[in-house]
Amino acid sequence: MQKIAILGAGESGVGAALLAQAKGYDVFVSDRGSIAEKYRQQLSQAQIPFEEGTHSLGQIFAAAEIVKSPGIPETAPVIAGALERNIPVISEIEFAGRYAQGRFICITGTNGKTTTTLLTYHFLKSAGLKVALAGNVGESLAGKVLEGGYDYYVVELSSFQLDNMYAFKAHIGILLNITPDHLDRYGYHMDNYAAAKFRIAQNMTAADFFLYNQDDAQIQKYRAAHQVPGTQVAFGLKEAEGLALRLEGNAISASFSQIEAKVDVAKSPLIGQHNQYNTMAAVGAALLVGIAPAQIEAALGTFRNADHRLQPVGEIEGVRFINDSKATNVEAVWYALDGIQQPIVWIVGGTDKGNDYSTLSPLVRQKVKAIVCLGVDNSKIRAAFSQICPKLAETQDVNEAVDLAKNFAQAGDVVVLSPACASFDLFKNYEHRGRAFAEAVAALQRTVAS
């Protein structure tokens, strides 16, 4: 019986352990941190040996192969030790891919992965296909492969997961964009980070499809210097030669691989230019698996994005409230302000991450009628915008922020929480901040209605 060691006992690690056991491996799970009760129970019930709080190197290095959590860097001593001993180290996605019967539709990029993954999955599910949602969103791919019975797996992949994938092949791979992120894991070189993202196309043949954003400078730079496998399918908003998917008014026009189609996207609930890219990519994938434009259009009308991403959370006296708490950097806020067409009351602030707000000034001047700062230290925001937008208030209380914003707004306006900052000054995380905002809106709705 071949021995396999699983490093990390979260969703992906436990999924890999259960699949490995089902495939006849002798499994050992090791987590240097503490294991959540849910996963501890799953391992115990399956009678899979595990440890937490330490790595027993003797046990781990006795394995023929190691499956590691994406959060563990290559520089970790346990990984360095394994590689010195020529023990293969792979990701859970790589391991699960060996046993999957269906085809993979994989999505990566610095921003927009989750929305595009959820939308692609929604298109396939709505069309009645046997499809699983896995990877960074939803459950582990290994767990879904263990369940079986799927023809398609829609998988969100981070660069960390792609780093340890070697034989895995996506039938459809989507690369949305590449902007600086996680550079500490890539020796502070954008080229290394880009190469990790492009691993989504590895092992493709001409019968597989690589969908990429033609407008992204880093993607184009990499493609100019490297041969990328698979049939190349470009999408973009800027007119260019060889564009397979483009936006024409309210319709996505597709012309590639014997597909000639127009998909009306007027019913889409998604706001902003970034979501036009996300939608084009998801529509391209749906067309490639044979879903008719009418089915895609119907599914768009019923799509609900993940929470905290330009999420409508209520309307009070004609003022709409939108929760964009996931917008923790300036770039994400730019997309929000650019995408909202009505006058805006902007709730911003939190723990500053070295933000340069200057790129937002033209949009604030053009669209924002008032600003509410929700944070402990708002000095940088005040300095950036007080001259452009004189209506500026500050608070450390989310209920007061909603009240202030409502008072600044009038019917037809939009109040958006799009913080440009981390949440740790007043909240546990961006989800906590978003939930608190939605609850404050609901409380104000009740007050106004009573």
Describe this structure in words.
This protein is an alpha/beta fold and 450 residues long. The protein has three domains: 3-87, Rossmann fold (3-Layer(aba) Sandwich); 94-300, 3-Layer(aba) Sandwich (UDP-N-acetylmuramoyl-L-alanine:D-glutamate ligase), CATH 3.40.1190; 311-449, Mur ligase, C-terminal domain (Protein-Tyrosine Phosphatase, Chain A, Alpha-Beta Complex). 36% of the residues lie in helices and 22% in strands. The protein is built from 17 helices and 20 strands. The strands form three sheets. A nine-stranded mixed sheet has the order 7-8-6-9-10-11-12-13-14. It has a six-stranded mixed sheet with strand order 15-16-20-17-18-19, with helices on both faces. Strands 3-2-1-4-5 form a five-stranded parallel sheet. Strand 17, helix 14 (361-367) and strand 18 form a beta-alpha-beta unit. Helix 6 packs parallel to helix 11 and helix 16 packs across helix 17 (430-449). The longest helix is centred in the C-terminal third of the chain and has 20 residues, at 430-449. The chain is globular. The protein starts with a strand and ends with a helix. The model has no long low-confidence stretch (mean pLDDT 94).
